[in-house]
Structures are given as structure tokens and as C-alpha cells.
Amino acid sequence: MRAVQFFSYGGPDELQAVEVVTPRPTATQVLVRVSATSVNHVDTETRLGRLKLLAGRRFPQGTGIDIAGTIELVGADVTEFVPGDQVWGVKAGFFSRTTGAAAEFMAIDAHLLAAIPTNIDIVDAAALPAVGITAITAVRDKGRVKAGSRILIRGAAGGVGSTAVQYAHSLGAHVTALVSERNTQFVLDLGADIVLDRRATQVEDLGTFDVIIDTVGSELLQYRRHLVEHGRMVTIAFSSTTSIAAIAFSAIYGRKRIRTLFGQPPRGLIAHLTDIVEAGGIMPVIERIYPLEKIVDAHRAVETGGGRGKRVIRIGP
Question: N or C: which end of the chain has fewer CB within 10 A?
């Protein structure tokens, strides 16, 4: 089968589509014929080598954690799926050297999958698994957002940000979004109540919020000052030493802690995401769909930033 791998850390041109052996599922896995994946920041950060302490130095490494496709084979102990089922999910072990989701087939633990929502296309579905479970975890679990909560979302036009806007709106929160001026109407259409131009808005001019969701990773301590007493700030951007230091500082000083999230989602969360999508609470937001042969362009575009939603890689039927 064809799979995208990289053989050393570096820029997007390190990615190569190569022929590898098609994996066989274990007793608790299924083999999925992949229709599409998408590019997340963990994919670009890993390929650049910024997460090498976790990813290691053995090559080749695969890429892609989002998966949407059709089950080809099921392991002996799998009872919840049968061949032909359309499924989506997020790959376990982000930094393992197994083939990623940017491949024609992928063996994956069955408990990491759920049925694709009936109201979206299988290729569009690839835009949502990672950002969907991240938004739910950040907004509901870490932020404890509920109806009436005042929430600020930084980077609200990106993959996680655009999903968090939709989800917070569906919960009845009052959503303020910080984006570039060109994305104002786009984010209003997603459900934001107030949209501010990030370049024209000074941090000190912001009001106070019950929850701040950060997808940027800079000026965390300055934004933390705009939380109400016992407010909660959640960041998903912590690859720089400055942001890591800010998170550590907040854990020691004051009541306004900066929370973060990392690792595998709990069991059942991808199925819950299916329910939310089918109820209309979250829908995929896609900047562009690329063929597998253009994955280098997709990675380069994600690194450049400024897109609306996700960049999806179409792989198979």
C-alpha cells in the first residue's frame, strides 16, 4: 500500500509517499481502508522535530492522526464493527513509528473508532476527530463551560478554534472570538457573539471572562489576568518554553490556573462527538481538500497559518 512517511526531521519536503506492507489487525483491532485524513499541528510539529523527545530518533515515521474510512477486516475479538462499516477516530500513540493515517490502510484499536455521523460526507469527516475531541475536552471538561458562561477563544478561525466556537455556542455560552479582520463574518456565522480583530485589540482592553480557550500559546499570563475569580484558562498551544513556563507558573501562583491537555481521549468520546455532530452542534470546517500526492502542500500551508478550519487529505474512495 501507499503511505506517507518521513526519514529525517525537517520541512514539508521530507514527506514521501512510499510503498509499505499493508498492516494486519490484531485481535482487538480493525483494518480500515482510509478515505481521508487531515493535517493537525501535532503532525507538523512532530515532522519538524520539535517533539523529538517524545517521538524519538528512529525512522521512518508515519504522519496523520485523524482517520475516516471503511472497515476492511476485523480482529477476532472485535464485536462492535463489521466489514463495510464507515468509521472515524484518532490514532493512538501519536509518536509511535507505526504507519499514520496518511496511508491507504491503517490498523487501529477498535475502541478508538465510532460510526461516522450520518449527516456528513466521509471525506469531510476527516476534518473533525482530533479537533472535535480537543474542543470538547477543553470547553466542557477543562473549562466547565455551561449556558451563560462568558468565554474568550483565541485563534477562533483555526481547526480547534472554529470547532470550539461552535461547541460553546451549542452549550449556550456567550462567545467572544479573537481573529484576523478577514475572518470576522466567518466566525460570526459559526456562532460567536462578539468578534474582535486580534491586531487592533489590546489585551488590556479586554473585559473579564469565565473561561479563556487559547490556541495561540503566547502572552498566556497577560490573558490570565482577564479571568474572573476562579476562572479557568485552557491552552492547547504549549510547544514553546515560554508557554510551558507560564503554565508551570500558574500552577504555583494564584487561583487562576492555566490548564492544558495532551494524550489520548477517554473511551467513548469519539462516539459522543458523533452524537454532537448528528445533533448539529458541530460541523466540519474545511479550508481545502488535497489529494495524497499534495500532502507536502497541505503541511506547508498549516505551518504558514491563517487558514479557516482544517486541511484535509483525500486518500481513497
Answer: C
Instruction: List, for residues 81-113, the tens digit of each pLDDT value.
Output: 999 999 999 987 665 566 899 999 999 999 999
How crowded is residue 310: how many other Cβ atoms within 10 Å of its Cβ?
A: 29
Cell triple for 61? 515515521
Kindly provide the residue ranges of all beta strands, DSSP E only, lying in the chain, ordered along the sequence: 2-6, 15-19, 29-38, 61-62, 66-74, 86-90, 105-109, 113-115, 150-154, 174-179, 194-197, 209-214, 227-235, 258-260, 286-291, 310-314
Q: What is the pLDDT of residues 213-245, one digit of tens each?
A: 999 888 888 998 999 988 999 988 755 555 544
CATH classification number, 130-260, choose in 3.40.50.300, 3.40.50.720, 3.40.50.80, 3.40.50.2300:
3.40.50.720
Q: Which residue has the higher pLDDT, 237 or 72?
A: 72
- Domain positions in the chain are 2-127+285-314, 130-260
Rg, Å, the chain Cα set: 19
Q: In this structure, which amino acid lies at residue 202?
A: Q
| CATH for 2-127+285-314 (2.30.330.10, 3.90.180.10, 3.30.420.40, 3.40.30.10) | 3.90.180.10
- If we measure between CA atoms, which residue out of 208, 259, 209 comes closest to residue 235? 259
Counting beta carbons within 10 angstroms of the beta carbon of residue 51, is it exposed (0 to 12), middle (13 to 18) or buried (19 or more)? Answer: middle
H or E element that contains 133 = helix 129-136
pTM of the model: 0.89
7 DSSP 8-state letter: S
